[in-house]
């Protein structure tokens, strides 16, 4: 059965590859990007199966118009993919106010407003699935990515809550959490000017590892996208899907340590209740 998808952030990376894969199997795609022209080759190849919209997710008003137009034009949209985003690289105090505001406006507020925008349309058509592209960084944290992690932890909490709100309307969510993957993510990062005082800290270590190529990137973009499609096609999707061996190892270790700390503090935790 042919499906219709709405995907943000399709000019490069996982969004672009996802668009290519879906079109190749015969699905219809509404693809958004900030700069026109990046998908001209796909448009020429796939014709009416691909609708391309120029959209910046930080412009909520324009996004609402574009989404309404897409639902009206396509009739029904089965899967909505919130993918637009990028990384801000640098220790917390290295980043400028403008860099922080742009990171949060794009990755967190943009994703929140996009989901809020599609919900009425999905309700009206009787349901649908929303895929939020997050990261292993939605459950763990590396030095030098504090603002990026803030957006990913934030959007995962938002989605987990909204999923409970809209389940009665036949709307469900899939949060995808890839580990480090061979895409253009690093090239697209916004980098804060480094401060010498962080040179001999964990932030400096991560900076040097990335600069030297020693930071392990095990994820394969094509296999990641294929796994996303399989999960999005499933009758019942998991709320979270970690992808890649690095994501599996880092998330499982983080969750085990969190549980260990919770259990170690159990007596203190329970002591905070009122006496009855």
UniProtKB/TrEMBL annotation:
<dbReference type="GO" id="GO:0016491">
    <property type="term" value="F:oxidoreductase activity"/>
</dbReference>
<keyword id="KW-0560">Oxidoreductase</keyword>
<dbReference type="InterPro" id="IPR036291">
    <property type="entry name" value="NAD(P)-bd_dom_sf"/>
</dbReference>
<dbReference type="InterPro" id="IPR002347">
    <property type="entry name" value="SDR_fam"/>
</dbReference>
<protein>
    <submittedName>
        <fullName>Short-chain dehydrogenase</fullName>
    </submittedName>
</protein>
<comment type="similarity">
    <text>Belongs to the short-chain dehydrogenases/reductases (SDR) family.</text>
</comment>
<dbReference type="InterPro" id="IPR051911">
    <property type="entry name" value="SDR_oxidoreductase"/>
</dbReference>
<dbReference type="Pfam" id="PF00106">
    <property type="entry name" value="adh_short"/>
</dbReference>
């Amino acid at each position: 059965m042919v499906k219709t998808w709405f995907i943000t952030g399709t000019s490069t990376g996982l969004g672009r590859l996802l668009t290519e894969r879906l079109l190749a199997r015969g699905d219809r795609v509404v693809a958004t990007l900030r700069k026109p022209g990046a998908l001209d080759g796909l448009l020429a190849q796939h014709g009416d199966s691909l609708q391309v919209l120029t959209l910046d997710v930080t412009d909520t008003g324009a996004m609402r118009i574009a989404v309404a137009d897409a639902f009206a034009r396509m009739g029904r949209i089965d899967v909505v993919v919130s993918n637009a985003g990028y990384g801000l690289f640098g220790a917390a105090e290295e980043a400028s106010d403008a860099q922080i505001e742009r990171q949060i406006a794009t990755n967190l507020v943009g994703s929140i407003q996009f989901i809020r925008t599609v919900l009425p349309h999905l309700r009206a058509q009787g349901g649908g699935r929303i895929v939020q592209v997050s990261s292993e960084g939605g459950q763990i944290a590396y030095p030098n990515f504090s603002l990026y992690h803030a957006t990913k932890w934030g959007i995962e909490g938002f989605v987990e809550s909204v999923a409970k709100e809209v389940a009665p309307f036949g709307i469900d969510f899939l949060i995808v959490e890839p580990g480090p993957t061979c895409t253009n993510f690093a090239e697209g990062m916004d980098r804060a000017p480094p401060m010498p005082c962080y040179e001999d800290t964990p932030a400096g270590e991560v900076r040097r590892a990335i600069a030297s190529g020693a930071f392990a990137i095990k994820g394969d973009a094509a296999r990641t996208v294929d796994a996303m499609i399989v999960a999005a096609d499933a009758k019942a999707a998991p709320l979270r899907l970690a992808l890649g061996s690095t994501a599996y190892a880092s998330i499982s270790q983080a969750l085990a340590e969190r549980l260990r700390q919770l259990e170690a503090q159990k007596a203190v935790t329970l002591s905070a209740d009122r006496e009855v």
